[in-house]
Amino acid sequence: MTESYGALCTDHYVNLKLGLKLELPRSRDTVLSLFERVRRQYPGMSEFRKYTDELALESPTSDAPHRWLAVRASSVRAGVVNPSASAEAYRLLEMVLDVSPYFLDISPLDVDYVEVLYGFDIAAGGNHDAIVAETLLGGSPIAGLFDLGSGSPIDCQPLVGLTLGDGTEAFFEVRTRPDENRNDRRGEPISVYLTLRRRGPIDELKQLAPMFRDMTAVGEELVDRGVLPVLVNPIRDGIVPGM
To answer: Domains in the chain: how many in total?
Structure first.
């Protein structure tokens, strides 16, 4: 992720998810010890939060970049919002892969999958589904389906999944958000996601960091060759200013 992405969207971020087959220990000392280890490296991550299904350590949302780490029953997640460079985001995420297995007693056999998500939020008013339908599907055969209705599209969220040569799964997704008034979604963005998934188990925990680096190298190429020119830029260019 680079500063140039900030000119294309409202927010951009990169997230990590380590999915596990067994539930994690949720004892007070176990999770807090992990959080303290991360906070020593990132002092700004000083806000501890307890949600219904997860425990989280975050920096203030006003920070740029905003960093967070969360532990759920069967996953460890982390992310960086609006990093100034790719390396800035990757440092935290790779650290989480390095240290969390030892604090949370994760074994190689327990690894179900590793996911890396690149996200781009594009602020837009009006009917988000109509914007996506026009900018991404206009003129295509599937666009003819919209002519069968009597009004504007109410759901248009394309999702394309691919298997890459190295066994990585890649998913390109556009997400609009439902609202009571579908024609007025001020404050809610259109989101574009690239999710890369590599499935486990693995032989050794030390494989996680190289796996992550391989996935981010592929991810950056797919962002530049696919996500930005095919999805983000057309949506951004199709938004009417002031709506």
So the answer is: 1
